[in-house]
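queue> holo job accepted (cytidine-5'-triphosphate)
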Amino acid sequence: MFDQKNILLGVSGGIAVYKACALASKLTQKGANVKVIMTESAAEFVAPLTFQALSRNPVYIDTFDEKNPQKIAHIDLADWADIVLIAPATANIIGKLANGIADDMLSTTLLATQADVYIAPAMNVHMYAHPAVIKNMKQLEEWGYHFIEPGDGYLACGYVGKGRLEEPESIMKAIQKHQENREKEPILSGKKVLISAGPTRERVDPVRFFTNRSSGKMGYALAEAAADSGAEVTLISGPVSENIMHPNIKRINVTTADEMYIEMHRYFPGQDIVIKAAAVADYRPKQVYAEKLKKKDGEWLVEMERTRDILQSLGKVKTKQYLVGFAAETNNLLEYGKKKLEKKNLDAIVINDVSSAGAGFEGDTNSVTYVNKHWKQDEVAIASKREVAEKILTLINRDMKDELH
Ligand code: CTP
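queue> job finished
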């Protein structure tokens, strides 16, 4: 598991620094690329040269000691790391991280990284039990940091209790187990996902309506892929011929844009991800007749009025929801797509070139461009709508994780 992995070892100041030397050595022996950041206090216990020799890489201590003028070291290291391990982690570095303090190389890099961060604490037994330390650790756990805590034992300060750094082999085993379990876990496990799909129908009279070419296939593929990835899915569906039977999918049928508006808002609170794949009518007949209109000679002009923009209204009330819209375009794809993302306060937009072969309405395949709110752009090449749905969900999951760090 460690082979070819980029591991950033953060060493803060405590007597347990000597065990971090063994860690650096063992990780390197397992094939990992190890880079070490030490705090100034850590360098009081063990010379940086020791870590340099064990990792075969320069050791970083001073934020302003830039070794390469082409790069900003703390950002470069933060991006380089697949895994960050802080061992030993003192009460001080735990406190800084839990409170967003970045005043040295290690704390600054920790705020900048998006990698998995493992924290192996080491401190005096009473420090470990202090409410401030407990509160900080809880906060970090809530944010997704992983602690590798030791059992009881003799401490260098003379006490017996909890506080010694876990043994290097056990730290490595804990990381390995955690990474392996995570790979097995479905990506949306425990998440609530709300999806709208299909067209809407806007009636003129009991037998006539306005609608569009949407088949609902993309939205249904998203619902099924999300449910297979462990999510609890609510699917608000316009009139389509698609069927869906899945224990994790609750389907609510609607006909008009207004009905979709009501159901989307009803289910919106408490959702983690909301994807609006539906092709909602932008206009509906101003007058709806209760009885069938008889044909007459000459033209019939139907006056239309705007429907409410459901997605835009959700963008205004969203709290934690990761809100994703669809844009069906035939030209200036990126420009129009990005405008919609901004106007509707979205987290990402899936842009569909409905004029290109094998993409868009009705067919079984699609190809899309996914753009997130930081303008990061990913192309999803032509594939079945189910495969495209899986890729879109993977991108959403990636971006949600990035937001967390
Ligand atoms: N949408 C919505 N409510 C509407 C209209 C659209 O929620 N009344 C959502 C769609 O579900 C989709 C996105 O908004 O996620 C599409 O944006 P929109 O600006 O409506 O696209 P177009 O209808 O293609 O708009 P335009 O004609 O301006 O290109």
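queue> The pocket of cytidine-5'-triphosphate is lined by residues 257, 276, 278, 280, 282, 307, 309-311, 325-328, 340 (CB under 6 Å).
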